[in-house]
Write a structure and sequence with these properties.
- The protein has 312 residues and is of the alpha+beta class.
- The chain has three domains: 63 residues, no CATH class; 114 residues, DNA primase, catalytic core, N-terminal domain (DNA primase DNAg catalytic core, N-terminal domain), CATH 3.90.980.10; 114 residues, Dna Topoisomerase Vi A Subunit, Chain: A, domain 2, CATH 3.40.1360.
- Helices cover 23% and strands 22% of the residues.
- Zinc ion (ZN) binds next to loops.
- The site of zinc ion has 9 residues, from loops.
């Protein structure tokens, strides 16, 4: 088999040849994986394969410069480094205000270990204690270790063992399409955190065996505490497949999908449906429904009624 040419990501100056959007999709000079326009060939990341020839499209394709792939360190090590890293960081008043405005209590904010990204990108003290090679977010340049410090709020992403395995950054200056990015140094010769599923545990689990799935770690944390239910925060609606092994680890027996109510957006609806179809094969499955509010967290903070519709 011939290796396919590496994909480039759809960007502002080089949009997806299929949907014309400037994020999320990828392509080379022959095929595109579009995350928005379905075809009869679905691929593992939740997108769809399109042969550009069939669409009579010649894309603007310049192969990306190969990046050496740095293998990620094991979760246990990441947890140690990341906990040390954030123990030296603070949560700015502005970021704290933002969390309070979302309806979080002081206690929840402390438990979530949220921090503001550091002022300085240098991490000399941390690099003296740990070998940061293979820890996403860190890289070495000119003999000195530093971190990718895009301005924003660091949101810890925890695995099923409550180890910090990565961070999402809620950007202070969000892009049109992007409010969150991963704390990753893969573009700087470091390693990528990969899409990781956040496991949000309430301070008291009222319904063992029941797991809800929502979008993103922040929503998951807020909702878990209010429902007394373990919640998974998937980092993007298309990443749902990574949630399946986590459900196994957690010994789930009932699963409820609680995606944003911008369900009318075609791509959200398609991925939500695919997720529901997959989990109903193994688990008693439901869909959470609410009115008016966009996210489940907003609905719960406002004490709106949230119903669960069982999927037969
Ligand atoms: Zn596309």
């Amino acid at each position: 088999m011939i290796e396919p040419k590496p994909f480039v990501n759809a960007k502002k100056n080089n949009p997806c040849p299929i949907c014309g959007k400037t994020s999320w999709c990828g392509f080379n000079d022959e095929i595109a994986v579009c995350m928005r326009v379905p075809s009869d060939r679905e691929v593992a990341n939740g997108g769809w394969l399109h042969k550009l020839k069939e669409h009579n499209i010649v894309p603007n394709y310049n192969p990306p410069k190969p990046n050496p792939i740095v293998k990620r360190k094991p979760d246990k090590f990441l947890d140690r480094v990341y906990r040390d890293f954030i123990s030296h960081l603070i949560l700015s008043a502005e970021h704290k205000e933002n969390l309070l405005n979302r309806g979080m209590t002081e206690k929840e904010i402390a438990a979530g270990l949220y921090r503001s990204t550091p002022e300085s990108k240098y991490v000399d003290a941390l690099a003296k204690k740990y070998n940061l090679y293979g820890v996403p977010g860190f890289f070495k340049e000119g003999g000195r270790w530093m971190c990718v410090a895009t301005r924003g709020m660091l949101i810890p992403v925890l695995n099923e063992l409550a180890q910090i395995v990565g961070f999402q950054i809620r950007l202070d200056n969000p892009d049109k399409n992007k409010k969150y990015v991963w704390f990753s140094s893969s573009n700087m010769g470091g390693s990528s955190p990969g899409p990781r599923i956040h496991v949000a545990r309430p301070s008291r689990v009222k319904h063992p065996g029941l797991v809800w799935i929502t979008e993103g770690p922040l929503k998951a944390n807020i909702s878990a505490e209010r429902l007394g239910i373990i919640m998974l925060g998937v980092p993007g609606v298309n990443c749902w497949k990574h949630a399946l092994p986590v459900l196994e680890h957690l010994n789930a027996n009932r699963v409820v999908v609680a995606y944003d109510s911008d369900y009318h957006k075609e791509q959200v609806r398609i991925h939500a449906r695919a997720l529901v179809n997959e989990i109903r094969k193994k688990y008693k499955t439901g869909i959470a429904l609410w009115h008016e509010h966009k996210g489940l967290d907003d609905a719960l903070v406002a004490h709106a009624e949230v119903r669960v519709k069982l999927v037969s």
